[in-house]
């Protein structure tokens, strides 16, 4: 069964600290993996898209990694800001069926 | 450049009724996809349209349907509403297909339509 699991479910960190969010997937055949940021009451915003051949991609203070062998991805946030408080969603696309499979998200709270 | 526009933003319906939601994509985008978001299930993919044709479909019953017009605007319809259909319905547009073989289209989401079924 195609699944995407994210951990932790929620996380509280202090402003200025770094953090890493995890995403494990069982989607096959794999097409690509995306990370989205969703602020409360808003639609998700794309952070990165990675295909099979890419293992690192950065977008400002956000760096995503992908290990297609172990089917794991991580999103690292450097020098966190209060505006980073949001839900971070991992999405995996399968090459067959055309479905996008979403993780449940990690709720990040950055405190001053 | 205008973003993805969804209407209405909020609506309340009763069980058994039907509802139609509208999505206007970013100008030039030909793919529109729809998603259901609930606290318990998270985000779930409903379907994706490209050039007026449904290209990909999630695991939702036939009560959920959609269509895309020649100007890429899209509508989704839910018939015979159930309490469990209460959710935030999100629409996203992309230049190319978001799902399926080679589908790497970056998704741009609207703010959503929040449906409450009483």
Give short descriptive properties of this protein.
heterodimer, A: 112 residues, mainly beta, 6-stranded mixed β-sheet, 5-stranded antiparallel β-sheet, 11 strands, B: 118 residues, globular
Topology:
The complex is a heterodimer of chains A (112) and B (118).
Chain A: E1 4-7, E2 10-14, E3 19-25, E4 30-38, E5 45-51, E6 56-59, E7 62-67, E8 72-77, E9 86-94, E10 100-102, E11 106-111
Parallel strand pairs in A: 2-11
Antiparallel strand pairs in A: 1-3, 3-8, 4-5, 4-9, 6-7, 7-8, 9-10, 9-11
Chain B: E1 5-7, E2 10-13, E3 19-24, E4 31-38, E5 42-50, E6 53-57, E7 64-68, E8 74-78, E9 87-94, E10 108-109, E11 113-117
Parallel strand pairs in B: 2-11
Antiparallel strand pairs in B: 1-3, 3-8, 4-5, 4-9, 5-6, 7-8, 9-10, 9-11
Structure, described:
- The complex is a heterodimer of chains A (112) and B (118).
- Chain A has 112 residues and is mainly β.
- Chain A has strands at 4-7, 10-14, 19-25, 30-38, 45-51, 56-59, 62-67, 72-77, 86-94, 100-102, 106-111.
- Chain A is globular and about 45 Å long.
- The model of chain A has no long low-confidence stretch (mean pLDDT 93).
- Chain B is mainly beta.
- In chain B, the strands form 2 sheets. In chain B, strands 2, 4, 5, 6, 9, 10 and 11 form a 7-stranded mixed beta sheet that branches. In chain B, strands 1-3-8-7 form a 4-stranded antiparallel beta sheet, with no helix packed on it.
- The interface between A and B is medium-sized, with 27 and 29 residues.
């Amino acid at each position: 069964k195609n699944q995407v699991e994210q951990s932790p479910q929620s996380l509280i960190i202090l402003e200025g600290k770094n953090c890493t969010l995890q995403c494990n997937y069982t989607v096959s055949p794999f097409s690509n993996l995306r990370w989205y940021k969703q602020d409360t009451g808003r639609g998700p915003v794309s952070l990165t898209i990675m295909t099979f051949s890419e293992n690192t991609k950065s977008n400002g203070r956000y760096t995503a990694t992908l290990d297609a062998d172990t089917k794991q991805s991580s999103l690292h946030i450097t020098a966190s800001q209060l505006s980073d408080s949001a839900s971070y969603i991992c999405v995996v696309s399968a090459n067959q069926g055309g479905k996008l499979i979403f993780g449940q998200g990690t709720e990040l709270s950055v405190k001053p | 450049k205008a973003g993805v526009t969804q209407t209405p933003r909020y609506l309340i319906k009763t069980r058994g009724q039907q509802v139609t939601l509208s999505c206007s994509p970013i100008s030039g985008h030909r793919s529109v996809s729809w998603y259901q978001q609930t606290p318990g299930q998270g985000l779930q993919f409903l379907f994706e349209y490209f050039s007026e044709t449904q290209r990909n479909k999630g695991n939702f019953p036939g009560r959920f349907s959609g269509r895309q017009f020649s100007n890429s605007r899209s509508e989704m319809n839910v018939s015979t509403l159930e309490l469990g259909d209460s959710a935030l319905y999100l629409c996203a547009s992309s230049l190319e297909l978001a799902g399926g073989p080679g589908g790497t289209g970056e998704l741009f989401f609207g703010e959503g339509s929040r449906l409450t079924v009483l």
